[in-house]
Design a protein that fits this description.
There is one protein chain. The protein has 437 residues and is an all-alpha fold. The protein has 4 domains: 61 residues; 99 residues, no CATH class; 76 residues, no CATH class; 72 residues. The chain is 74% helix and 0% strand. It has 18 helices and no strands. The longest helix is centred in the N-terminal third of the chain and has 73 residues.
Length: 437
């Protein structure tokens, strides 16, 4: 009987030759299956990727279609503003409010961009404070072209009130702009620190339209003049530049004559010409009437026109102009008569003009100007007599001069008052010179 070991041996021996072939077959089968798997996996993932790509394309097309449809619908629908105009007419007053916080809220509620909102609020606040500032730069007196400049200067009490109010505004405005908008806009304040109504008062004789027209002409001409003068060396134009300036002035005169009637043009000259502005300074203390101002202006304007554009440094020009000025002054004094001619001559004294401005500013009687000038004449005469007297010892001379200065100071202070005298003493070097040997 065969043992199990004997029967097993042939089977083991049979398996051994088959083993390499089986392994090779299995490897081949695995490779085949793996290749098929990769093949079908590639097909699957490529199909999936193509599907997703197609879906994404479809989604983009859908979004584009929806966007186009939305824009078309928005275009077809009436805009909110057109609806408001039909059902509830819109007015800016619906947004404005005396409370700036509410005003800002209203602007934001209608979708106003922040930059535009900021511009609106800053401009509005600045205009409000500019109006407040402007009130403190003029004394309330209506403009009369024949009155000299001291009439419209602020009184001392008005200056003190102005300074107090401007100090308050300087504190309020930056704080308000910061509180409302969270910004610091102090560097922009200077453009609002003007009397915005000066031109309106000066040109009140013109309609609003004509006033705007002539002011635009003035701005245009001034801009052209500035461009020429910027090119001038040391502020002195060349002959060619001087010719350009004359041309600009002539074109402005022609444009003004075309925009205004003859009467309006003459009124413009009386209120706004350089000749009239200069006269209002030169005639301080003369207190001209309207008729006197016109009489003098006619001659001054003719003289200015005759020498317009000529070189003021040319000796021949200066000599000719000086001769014509003397002739003009003689004619003016003859037309004024002796009494007014004397006052006309007096107003050419710079100290007299200074005292006149001071008297107007501090509400002093007009006579104080002449009183102080008489005081000066007496004091300087007394000083001259002491200095010319050799019999007076030096120590006594010094004491006498000091006494004259002290008495003059006392009398001038009593005449002008403490505040006006303190202001006058800053420029009155003649008083300080009385006590010097």
């Amino acid at each position: 009987m065969d043992s199990p070991l004997a029967s097993a041996e042939p089977a083991s021996l049979a398996w051994e030759p088959m083993k390499p072939r089986l392994i090779a077959l299995l490897c081949l089968l695995n490779i085949t299956l793996l290749g098929v798997g990769y093949f079908w996996a590639g097909i699957y993932f490529e199909s999936r990727l193509a599907h997703e790509r197609e879906s994404a394309g479809q989604q983009l097309d859908q979004w584009k279609t929806e966007a186009v449809a939305a824009r078309a619908a928005a275009t077809a629908r009436p805009s909110p503003s057109s609806l408001l105009s039909k059902t509830n007419p819109f007015n800016w007053s619906q947004l404005e409010s005396t409370d700036y916080r509410q005003y800002i809220a209203n602007l934001r509620a209608i979708g106003c961009p922040e930059t535009t909102l900021r511009d609106i609020i800053i401009t509005d606040v600045m205009r409000l404070y500019a109006a407040r500032r402007g009130k403190f730069y003029q004394n309330g007196r209506p403009f009369k072209y024949w009155e000299t400049d001291e009439k419209r200067k602020l009184k001392q009490t008005q200056i003190e009130e102005r300074d107090a109010q401007l100090a308050l505004i300087d504190k309020e405005l930056p704080a308000i702009l910061r509180e409302l908008l969270g910004i610091n806009y102090e560097r922009e304040l200077n453009k609002y620190f003007v009397d915005a109504e000066e031109d309106d008062r000066r040109l009140a004789f013109l309609s609003d339209d004509k006033r705007a027209q002539v002011l635009a002409l003035r701005e245009q001409s001034e801009g052209r003049r500035e461009k020429v003068l910027w090119q001038a060396q040391d502020g002195k134009p060349t002959p060619e530049q001087a010719a350009q300036l004359r041309q600009i002035d002539q074109e402005q005169e022609t444009a003004l004559a075309g925009a205004l009637t003859a009467e309006e043009k003459y009124e413009w000259d009386l209120t706004s010409s350089p000749t009239a502005d200069r006269m209002r300074k030169e005639l301080i203390g003369f207190n001209p009437s309207e008729a006197e101002f016109r009489e003098i202006f006619a001659r001054e304007q003719a003289l200015d026109a005759a020498y317009a554009g000529q070189d003021p440094d040319d000796e021949t020009v200066r000599a000719a102009k000086a001769a014509d000025e003397r002739k003009m002054q003689d004619e003016i004094e003859a037309a004024l008569g002796p009494a007014r001619a004397a006052q006309y001559e007096q107003c050419r004294n710079p100290d007299y003009q200074n005292l006149t401005v001071l008297a107007e500013r501090f509400d002093l009687p007009a006579e104080v100007s002449q009183a102080v000038l008489d005081m000066r004449q007496s004091a300087e005469e007394a000083r001259r007599q002491i200095l010319d007297n050799p019999a007076i010892a030096e120590d006594r001379r010094d004491a006498a001069l000091q006494a004259i200065q002290a008495e003059t100071e006392r009398a001038a202070r009593e005449t002008l008052g403490d505040k006006a005298y303190a202001e006058y003493a800053r420029s009155a070097s003649w008083i300080r010179g009385l006590g010097r040997n």
